[in-house]
Amino acid sequence: MNKRLLVVGSGASGVHFALSTLRKGYQVTMLDVALPKPPAACPEETLDGLKDHLSDPVEYFLGEGNESIVLPGTSDNYRARYFGIPPSRSYVFESPKAFSYEASGFEPLFSFARGGLAEAWTGGAYPLEDHDLRDFPFGYETLEKYYEEVTQRIGINGTADDLTRFLPLQKALMAPLDLDENSKDLIERYQGKRSLLAKKFRCYIGRSRVATLSREQDGRGECTYCGRCLWGCPNESLYTPSITLQACLQFPNFTYLPGLMANYFIADSQQHLTGIAAESLVDGQRHTFQADTYVLAAGTLCSSKIYLDTLFKATGEIQKLTGLMDNRQVLVPFINLHCIGNGYAGDRYQYHQLGLGLEMDDPAEYVHGQITTLKTAQTHPLLQLMPLDLRSAIKVYQLLRTSLGVVNLSFHDTRRPENFLSITPEDKSGHTKLSIQYRPRKGQGQSINLALKRLRGALAELGSFVVPGMTVIRPMGSSLHYSGTLGMSEQPKPLHTSKFCQSYDFENLYVVDGSVIPFLPAKNITLTLMANAVRVAEEAF
Ligand SMILES: Cc1cc2nc3c(=O)[nH]c(=O)nc-3n(C[C@H](O)[C@H](O)[C@H](O)COP(=O)(O)OP(=O)(O)OC[C@H]3O[C@@H](n4cnc5c(N)ncnc54)[C@H](O)[C@@H]3O)c2cc1C
Ligand code: SF4
What we know:
There is one protein chain. By secondary structure, this protein is of the alpha+beta class. It has two domains: 1-35 and 94-121 and 240-321 and 419-428 and 481-541, FAD/NAD(P)-binding domain, CATH 3.50.50.60; 44-89 and 160-238 and 328-411 and 441-475, no CATH class. The protein has eleven helices and 21 strands. Helix 1 packs parallel to helix 11 and helix 5 (181-201) crosses helix 10 (444-461). It is globular, with a radius of gyration of 23 Å. Bound molecules: flavin-adenine dinucleotide (FAD) and iron/sulfur cluster (SF4). Residues 8-14, 31-34, 111-113, 116-118, 120-124, 261-262, 297-299, 302, 306, 480-481, 513-514, 524-526, 529 line the site of flavin-adenine dinucleotide.
């Protein structure tokens, strides 16, 4: 058996693949850019405690040069709308100088952090069902035990309710967290109107599935409702992949190589990889590393770039990887009239606690929603969106604060040839640039309008109203569920992977991140990336 594995990337996909193969006795080396996380400030403090006890709270909340302030007129991207990225999380989205890209119709975010994008995720963890897996070479029955395994590893809370019709129930789910007042009001009103909402709007509401501990597990504390979720959970209740990386580091058969950017694999003429070329981010030195089998888990966009660079180095040809997918997301702010004027409390879990499902005629076109009520978010981006002067905006905001919320609707996507990744030739430093093209799905506007109509109706029945003029159709690239560029296919074909995520171009290369996903349902995909990575580790190794 070939025992030496080299994994690129320490994100959600890479760490779960690594943990499973380490447990099976493989020698695993992980190569990672690994931008490090700053230590948590005063971990014992609540959010309000930080304001009182930090020596320089302004720097903590707004950054050394106030860079976290979102100025009026800032472009319509992730940072500018509703959720600012706080300085304590900016490392998650920084890129090394050696990396560059150009994009048309797509606004991507990359992460080169230790643990990847999910160091800043909001923990929504939803299993797919057979409809969602319609283009996968396997069904729910195959994934079920890996969903269960990952649920145990990371800790997910949730419960049986009306969303179970869309979200199969894992036995290992923990009890849900305590609800904030606005979410509690919504779900209680929903209980009285559930038949009506189902009949009139095909709309179902229940508890979100969230990767946050409601009881202690593996040395991680249960959620203390300290309100710091957006700034980074100080006691590891909210799962991040660096927790699993820490578990991998306990194995003597694990070698972690941070500070290295993988550029391309070295291939011989037999479609066999003999090494990987990487460069140090410290001194720019180039290195090669050898293993028996190589595993790409650098996130869809970066894994695809490494794949394209490998083909370019091996053949001199520039290829296109078609089928790029991402969920279209629409942010729908609403006011719950029953909560206007209620006092604000900072000691609440901050992210979404309720989920919402809109049933469609084709079950694969199900629309998924996460309901986040406003608690301790960065508020200045919201204030500036109000058509009022600052003083009036603050007054109105204080009155409305606990009644506000946002439904984040997600729509499915399919692999289409017009959406692709490619590279432009090397510059003087020997690096290629990643190029991205994305064009929206035909008919998507109608799907969005239909979903919005049903959502407005359903919220109104619950005494909540969509705020006029504030619904935002986010640019493609915002959902960060990038996938589909090296899709799994039972038919062997170039630029694709097998059912076990083995490349059809290079026999000793596996891809275990979103690149291999052949259809992107509306449900946030990261739980499935982790479960699939464990499946490959268990069934192909
Ligand atoms: C704010 C936010 C909220 C989100 N909320 C949710 C949610 O609620 N639910 C959900 O399902 N998903 C959510 N996501 C998406 C989720 O974070 C991603 O799906 C997930 O992180 C993808 O994991 P990955 O391992 O495939 O890739 P990534 O997270 O992109 O990790 C890539 C890894 O590869 C390394 N790397 C990259 N290139 C190289 C290279 N050339 N050489 C060496 N190393 C390299 C990086 O350092 C990193 O460790 C959210 C993301 C964000 C940012
Ligand atoms: S999950 Fe959020 S509220 Fe809970 S302990 Fe962590 S930061 Fe605090």
